[in-house]
Design brief:
Helix content is about 40%, strand content about 15%. The chain is an alpha/beta fold and about 475 residues long. The protein has 2 domains: about 55-80 and about 360-470, Aspartate Aminotransferase, domain 1 (Alpha-Beta Complex); about 90-360, 3-Layer(aba) Sandwich (Aspartate Aminotransferase, domain 2), CATH 3.40.640. The protein is globular, with a radius of gyration of 25 Å. It binds pyridoxal-5'-phosphate. Pyridoxal-5'-phosphate binds near residues 80, 154, 155, 265 and 293.
Length: about 475
C-alpha cells in the first residue's frame, strides 16, 4: 500500500482536491457548533513511535481474535480462555456480598467499607491476606501478605517485575522457548532483550541449557538477570518440569546469579496425578519471584493477578525493603492500584471456598483433563502410529493444562490457519510467534479449554482432513 491512500483515510475523507491544490483558505464550518474544522495533524509515521509497534509479535493475538470473529462457526482450538459453562452472572453479586460480609465481620464501619470499595486503595492491594492464605492452603507456600502485590492480571505483574529487575540494556531475561508471548511482548515494550533457552521435548527448559545460556550471555558482556519459566503445563507447549529438574534449576540459577520468575496460571489443571511442587515452594533462598493469575482459576474478566516478591532490596545506607514494595512503587505510576471491585469479587470467591481454590477448581480440573484426554484419544484414532510416521506427524501428551502441540509436515502459518478455518471449520494457533529466535514453523498449538467434548471430536475430525490434504 502506498502512503497516499492511508493518509486520505486518516484525514477522514478530506478532499483530495483541496490537498492537491494547496491549503484551502476557507476551512469548512462545523454545522453544529459553528467552530471551524481544522485539518487533523499529519499521520504519525509508525517509525516515529516505539519500535515494539512495528513488531509482528504484537499482532499475533489480534490476528487470532479477528480470525475467530470471521469464522464464528468454526471449532476453535485457538483461545486459551476458560470454559464459560462454569460462569453464572449471579456469582459476581454473591462473591461481592461475601466479601462485604467479611469486612463487616472484621468490624469495619460502613464508612470504612465505603472507602475500601469506592476510593483509591493501597497500591499493593486489599486482599493480600486472603491470597496469602490461599497460597498456604493450595501450594504449601508460607509467604507474608506484605510480600504480595495484587496486579491487573499476571500481565501487569510481568511488566512490573521485568521493569524492576532489569537495570539497563545490558541486562537480559532468559526465557524458555517456546515462550508465552505475554512475557516476550512485555520485554519488547520495555526495550529489554530476551535470550531463548530451548525447552526439551516434554519437560520444559533443561537446567544445564539455562546455565549455558547464562554463561554465553555473560561472555557477550550482558548480565543475565532472571529466567522466566512456566514449570506447570506451559503455554504454549504444555510441557511440565519433573521435580528433580525443578530442584536442579534452582541450584543452577543460584550458581549463575539468576533470579527465577515463575509463572503459574495452570498448575491446578492436572491430567496425570503426581506431585508438582511449585518452584516457589522449593525455594530455600528466596530466589523465586512468583507470578499468580486468577484468570483461569476464578475468571479472566476480573483481570486479577499477583506477584509474590519476598526478596530483600538494599537501599542507601543499608535500608532494607521488600521487592514487593519496590514493585508497588512502580505500580503507583502505572495502574495506581488494582481495582477494588475486582479484588472484592475475587476475595469473596476465595472466602466462599475457604481460601482453597484448588478444591474449588476440582470440577474445572476434571473438565479440562477429560478434554485433553479426548483430544489425545481422537488424534490417536485419526492418526495411528504407522500413519503418523508416514505423514511425519507428531504431538506431545501434556500431563495437564490447556494446550498440546502438533508437529505437521507443512508450514503451519497464518495462511494455513485461514485455509483450515475456511475449508475445514477448524481454528488453531500457529506456534512460530512463540519462538523468540525463530522456529516452530511446522507446529501448531491446540487449546482444549473453551470447548466441549463433541466439539473436540468434530474439531479433530476436521483437522485430520486438513492435515491429510495439506500433506499430499
Ligand atoms: C503463561 C501465562 N501466564 C499468564 C497468563 C494470564 O495472564 P493474566 O492474569 O494477565 O490473564 C496466561 C494466560 O493466557 C498465560 O498463558
Amino acid at each position: 500500500m502506498t502512503a497516499a491512500p492511508a493518509r486520505d483515510t486518516a484525514r477522514g475523507g478530506a478532499s483530495a482536491t483541496a490537498r492537491d491544490d494547496g491549503p484551502n483558505p476557507v476551512p469548512p464550518v462545523a454545522p453544529t457548533t459553528g467552530a471551524p474544522v481544522l485539518p487533523p495533524v499529519a499521520p504519525i509515521p509508525i517509525a516515529d513511535l516505539h519500535g515494539s509497534l512495528a513488531d509482528p509479535l504484537l499482532d499475533a493475538m489480534t490476528f487470532l481474535n479477528e480470525v475467530t470473529e470471521r469464522y464464528p462457526d468454526a471449532v476453535s482450538f485457538a483461545p486459551g480462555r476458560p470454559y464459560e459453562g462454569f460462569f453464572e452472572p449471579e456469582q459476581v453479586h454473591e462473591h461481592l456480598d461475601a466479601y462485604l460480609a467479611h469486612l463487616a465481620e472484621r468490624g469495619l464501619s460502613r464508612a470504612a467499607v465505603r472507602t475500601a470499595l469506592f476510593q483509591y486503595g493501597p497500591t499493593k492491594g486489599i486482599i493480600t491476606d486472603l491470597v496469602a492464605r490461599t497460597l498456604a492452603n493450595d501450594e504449601g507456600l508460607d509467604v507474608p501478605a506484605e510480600s504480595l502485590v495484587l496486579t491487573v492480571g499476571a500481565q501487569e505483574g510481568m511488566l512490573l517485575v521485568l521493569r524492576a529487575l532489569c537495570a539497563d540494556q545490558d541486562d537480559v531475561l532468559l526465557v524458555s522457548s517456546p515462550c508465552y508471548v505475554g512475557v516476550t511482548g512485555a520485554a519488547r515494550l520495555l526495550g529489554l532483550s530476551t535470550v531463548p533457552v530451548p525447552e526439551g521435548p516434554d519437560h520444559g527448559p533443561d537446567p544445564e541449557a539455562v546455565a549455558a545460556a547464562a554463561r554465553e550471555a555473560r561472555a557477550a558482556g550482558r548480565r543475565p538477570r532472571a529466567l522466566y519459566v512456566v514449570p506447570d503445563f506451559a503455554n504454549p507447549s504444555g510441557a511440565s518440569m519433573p521435580t528433580p529438574a525443578r530442584i536442579r534449576l534452582l541450584d543452577v540459577a543460584a550458581a549463575e546469579g539468576l533470579l527465577v520468575v515463575e509463572d503459574n496460571p495452570y498448575g491446578f489443571f492436572t491430567r496425570e496425578p503426581g506431585a508438582r511442587p511449585t518452584l516457589k515452594a522449593l525455594d530455600r533462598r528466596r530466589q523465586v519471584v512468583y507470578l499468580g493469575s486468577f484468570a483461569k482459576t476464578c475468571f479472566p474478566g476480573a483481570r486479577l493477578g499477583y506477584v509474590v516478591a519476598d526478596q530483600q532490596v538494599a537501599g542507601p545506607g543499608g535500608r532494607l525493603s521488600l521487592l514487593a514494595d519496590e514493585l508497588a512503587r512502580l505500580k503507583s505510576m502505572t495502574t495506581v492500584n488494582t481495582p477494588a471491585l475486582s479484588q472484592a469479587v475475587i476475595g469473596g470467591m476465595l472466602l466462599r471456598n475457604d481460601c482453597r481454590l484448588r478444591r474449588a477448581n476440582a470440577p474445572a480440573t476434571a473438565f479440562y483433563a477429560a478434554n485433553l484426554e479426548t483430544l489425545l484419544r481422537e488424534l490417536e484414532r485419526h492418526f495411528p502410529a504407522p500413519e503418523r510416521a508416514r505423514l511425519g506427524l507428531d504431538w506431545n501428551r501434556p500431563e495437564g493444562g490447556f494446550f498440546a502441540v502438533l508437529t505437521v509436515p507443512f508450514t503451519a502459518d497464518e495462511a494455513a490457519m485461514e485455509r483450515c478455518a475456511r475449508g475445514y471449520g477448524v481454528l488453531w494457533t500457529p506456534m512460530a510467534p512463540f519462538y523468540p529466535a525463530g522456529g516452530g514453523e511446522r507446529r501448531l498449538r491446540l487449546s482444549i479449554s473453551s470447548l466441549t467434548e463433541p466439539e473436540i471430536v468434530a474439531g479433530v475430525a476436521g483437522l485430520a482432513r486438513f492435515v491429510r490434504d495439506e500433506a499430499r
